[in-house]
Write a structure and sequence with these properties.
Layout lengths: L1 H7 L12 H8 L33 E4 L5 E3 L3 H8 L3 E11 L32 E11 L4 E4 L8 H12 L12 H4 L34 E4 L5 E3 L12 H9 L3 E4 L10 E3 L4 E3 L4 H6 L26 H5 L24 H10 L3 H7 L3 H6 L9 H13 L10 H10 L11 H7 L14 H14 L13 E9 L5 E8 L2 E4 L8 H16 L10 E3 L1 H9 L2 E2 L4 E2 L4 E2 L2 E7 L5 E7 L1 E3 L5 E3 L2 E3 L4 E3 L44 H8 L5 H10 L5 H11 L36 H8 L5 H10 L4 H10 L2 H4 L1 H9 L22 E11 L7 E8 L2 E6 L2 E4 L8 E8 L3
Parallel strand pairs: 13-19, 14-22
Antiparallel strand pairs: 1-2, 1-3, 3-4, 4-5, 6-7, 6-8, 8-9, 9-10, 11-12, 11-18, 15-18, 16-17, 19-28, 20-21, 23-24, 24-25, 24-28, 25-26, 26-27
Family: Belongs to the peptidase C19 family.
GO molecular function: cysteine-type deubiquitinase activity; zinc ion binding
Function: Deubiquitinating enzyme that removes conjugated ubiquitin from specific proteins to regulate different cellular processes.
Length: 863
């Protein structure tokens, strides 16, 4: 008890027992096989707990496992010990003390502090002239909590000494997130200096791009040799395309491409197909100018000043951040800020809004014990664990405490300063959710709306059992397409998560003021006089809503009534209303000169929003439907050799296209059939097949192909039934069962991961609820010999329909000229008043700028 008390501050713990060198050696002998020296590539976490935001600065310090190099706060280290049996941890603690005063009352002269060896951020609230830091490290052996002070070269075995030194000298695993080192992580392409560019007269417009091979309009890449615009590959977050940019490289050998939509004054996303990685192109401006994109002009505005140098008296920077107003800081549960990691405010703003929603609070923070107990061996790589950690950090109040009262300061400082941590650093969360994503993994500013959709996709893919908090955003959109020549119509439905409202600039109510301001501004610039006070366009919200509901032309519309291309118009309505409605104002565009532009407008967003009039009505009396005929499949010449007129092997089905369709809410087997019967031509062509065949009675039946004897092996999905004839290889099952898992768990995991051993192990740890369903799995296996397949009816997209009456509770605002620069701030209504979340600063809002927002969050209210 005395040894435990020395570490945990329990009564009687005044010190640790002294041990001779032989005693220490004997103590470590049983644990020597578990102590490792960090190798190249090992991530050593010594600054942050895997389950909380405890650090060596925290009162209990931090424990680093000497085998996995994961770190845990005092509250969570016992869990890791019980789960893994790892006994040896390095305990790290930073002490902050007031400096010794000299005879005259001032602090003694500065000396080099040799007692600091931890690579930690210092507390900005403390004056370094008044306080000094001292770092402490020791080994702790569980479960008896023996302590061995470090350094202890004479008494520790050589291996332990080397391991301790390696841990203490290791660099942060987040180094490449630091703003001053990120760009250095990207190599300069070896093809940039001598890149060949064809003089073919290609000029790229500032908008309206689409893939030259499949008509996709997102994730488009401009080849810097011939100016081809082609789609990229499909990413795990459902963004992307059919990989035509890569195919073009394989056909032509042109190595470099730049992603359209990422070009900004600071550069753009450039990828080298030959080098197979993102690269830097030091001549990017010249290469883009070859195709009519004046990147150098994008470095400045019309008057030659940078965006941040333009400071009108009522700039959005001042209004949105409520500059000039004395704001009262807020502390406690729900009022915790997020520190900016360098252009991470887009993430912070979205997460503050997300965790103000009760469904997300319950799904993650409400299930904290279960999620943490069943987390995988490496919780830093588990989405649900990191979401729960972030939610608890924001909502618990542990990291948002008011300053110590003035009368207590002297008492505290006489012994040791115990700093109050205000705000948390989301490094671990950002590193995980941005992993493998080309934009979010960089340190550049990103679009908050794109990150919101990326996060929703991660929530969908990592849902906890049957609970999926992102259901509150999901709604169905009814699209009515009419052939202008025959007047016949077609109704379809799709899933969406936010409402995008256009800015109706033509409806501005202060047009005369805008014209006068523009003339005055140009005259002031010409004469180098101070700019006049900014005048914003005032746009009625009703005009934006009207623009949303108006018909729009359909590009390349193919009329099944005419069996030919024709003019078509499309209108969109809500087939269901979500529990929470997210509204995005489409403020960003590109000018004719390729300069990113933002509509700096004021829109009178309502606190109460009624969109019941936008409810879909379906096929109306007197309307005639377009014939149910699919358009002919046009096979590109370079793809004809890939598409045969005979059946393809089921193992060759493009699983990325299957998952892209499944994320839209269609049954998995239907998605596999769609990709199969369209010859792996991509998700867009397969989507057309689904629309045509979705009413057929066998739409969701397993794919059956002559010559392959029975249902296609699809790999199980946690979203649907498992094919019983998909028996995993017994040798892989045996490997998993030898680790102590049940056979039914092994079978279920392998089916869900297409018999991939490594992914199956991760699946087991992230789906503990399937252990509880063992009886069901055993029953399924007993029926396997009879080749009985579940005949469950396909489930449609999960929606929570209800009234279309909403109330505003949060909004995210953007400052700057482009989503790739500037700053984001979030306002949330809590306990009857508005609160501003500006990175780590959380204050009561005095003048919430509801008219300048970019994304608005509404919750449904009863009519």
């Amino acid at each position: 008890m005395q040894r435990r008390g020395a570490l945990f501050g329990m009564p009687g713990g005044s010190g640790s027992r002294k041990m001779a060198a032989g005693d220490i050696g004997e103590l470590l002998v049983p644990h020597m096989p578990t102590i490792r020296v960090p190798r190249s590539g090992d991530r050593v976490y010594k600054n942050e707990c895997a389950f909380s935001y405890d650090s060596p600065n925290s009162e209990g310090g931090l424990y680093v496992c000497m085998n996995t190099f994961l770190a845990f706060g005092r509250e969570h280290v016992e869990r890791h010990f019980r789960k893994t049996g790892q006994s040896v941890y390095m305990h790290l603690k930073r002490h902050v003390r007031e400096k010794v005063r000299g005879a005259s009352g001032g602090a003694l002269p500065k000396r080099r502090n040799s007692k600091i060896f931890l690579d930690l951020d210092t507390d900005d609230d403390l004056n370094s002239d008044d306080y000094e830091y001292e770092d402490e490290a020791k080994l702790v052996i569980f479960p008896d909590h023996y302590e061995i002070a470090l350094p202890n070269i004479e008494e520790l075995p050589a291996l332990v000494t080397i391991a301790c030194d390696a841990v203490l000298s290791s660099k942060s695993p987040y180094r490449k997130q630091d703003p001053d080192t990120w760009e250095n992580e990207l190599p300069v392409s070896k093809y940039a200096n001598n890149l060949t560019q064809l003089d073919n007269g290609v000029r790229i417009p500032p908008s309206g791009w689409k893939c030259a091979r499949c008509d996709l309009r997102e994730n488009l890449w401009l080849n810097l040799t011939d100016g081809s615009v082609l789609c990229g590959k499909w990413f795990f977050d459902s963004s992307g395309g059919n990989g035509h940019a890569l195919e073009h490289y394989r056909d032509m050998g042109y190595p470099l491409a730049v992603k359209l939509g990422t070009i900004s004054p600071d550069g753009a996303d450039v990828y080298s197909f030959q080098e197979e990685e993102p690269v830097l192109d030091p001549h990017l401006a010249k290469h883009l100018a070859h195709f009519g994109i004046d990147m150098l002009h994008m470095h400045g505005t019309e008057n030659g000043l940078r965006d941040n140098d333009i400071k009108p008296r009522v700039s959005e920077w001042e209004v949105i951040q409520e500059t000039g107003t004395k704001l009262k800081p807020m502390y406690g549960p729900g009022y915790t800020g997020l520190k900016n990691l360098g252009n991470s405010c887009y993430l912070s703003s979205v997460m503050q809004a997300i965790f103000s929603i009760p469904e997300f609070q319950r799904a993650y923070v409400g299930n904290l014990p279960r999620i943490f107990d069943y987390s995988p061996l490496d919780p830093t790589q588990d989405f649900n664990t990191q979401m729960t950690k972030l939610g608890h950090g924001l909502l618990s109040g542990q990291y948002s405490k008011p300053p110590v009262k003035s009368e207590l300061i002297e008492q505290v400082m006489k012994e040791e300063h115990k700093p109050q941590q205000n705000g948390i650093s989301p490094r671990m969360f950002k590193a995980f959710v941005s992993k493998s994503h080309p934009e979010f993994s960089s340190n550049r500013q990103q679009d908050a709306q794109e990150f919101f959709l990326h996060l929703v996709n991660l929530v969908e893919r990592n849902r906890i059992g049957s609970e999926n908090p992102s259901d509150v955003f999901r709604f169905l959109v009814e699209e009515r397409i009419q052939c202008c020549q025959t007047r016949k119509v077609r109704y379809t439905e799709r899933v969406d998560y936010l409402m995008q409202l256009p800015v109706a600039m033509e409806a501005a109510t202060n047009k005369d003021e805008l014209i006068a301001y523009e003339l005055t501004r140009r005259e002031a610039e010409a004469n180098r006089r101070p700019l006049p006070e900014l005048v914003r366009a005032k746009i009625p919200f009703s005009a934006c809503l009207q623009a949303f509901s108006e018909p729009e032309n359909v590009d390349d519309f193919w009329s099944s009534a005419l069996q030919a291309k024709s003019a078509g118009v499309k209108t969109s309505r809500f087939a269901s209303f979500p529990e929470y409605l997210v509204v995005q104002i489409k403020k960003f565009t590109f000018g004719l000169d390729w300069v990113p532009k933002k509509f700096d407008v004021s829109i009178d967003m309502p606190d109460l929003l009624d969109i019941n009039h936008l409810r879909a009505r379906g096929l109306q009396p007197g309307e005639e439907e377009l014939p149910d005929i699919s358009p002919p499949i046009v096979i590109p010449d370079d793809s004809k050799d890939r598409l045969m007129n005979q059946l393809i092997d089921p193992s060759d089905i493009d699983e990325s296209s299957v998952m892209q369709l499944a994320e839209m809410g269609f049954p998995l087997e239907a998605c596999r059939k769609a990709v199969y019967f369209t010859g792996n031509m991509g998700a867009e062509v397969a989507f057309n097949w689904i629309i045509v065949h979705m009413e057929e009675p066998d739409f969701a039946e397993p794919l059956t192909m002559p010559g392959y004897g029975g249902a296609a092996s699809a790999g199980a999905s946690v979203f649907g039934a498992t094919g019983l004839d998909n028996q995993p290889p017994e040798e892989i099952v045996a490997i998993i069962t030898s680790m102590g898992f049940h056979r039914n768990q092994a079978v279920q995991a392998l089916r869900a991961t297409n018999n991939n051993l490594e992914r199956a192990l991760d699946w087991i740890f992230s789906h503990p609820e399937f252990e509880e369903d063992s009886d069901f799995v055993i029953e399924m296996e007993n029926n396997a010999n009879a080749n009985i397949i579940s005949e469950a009816k396909p489930e449609g997209p999960r929606v929570k329909d209800g009234s279309g009456m909403y109330e505003l509770f949060a909004f995210i605002s953007h400052m700057g000229t482009s989503t790739m620069s500037g700053h984001y701030v979030c306002h949330i209504k809590k306990e009857g008043r508005w609160v501003i979340y500006n990175d780590h600063r959380v204050c009561a809002s005095e003048r919430p700028p509801k008219d300048l927002g970019y994304m608005y969050f509404y919750h449904r209210v009863p009519r």
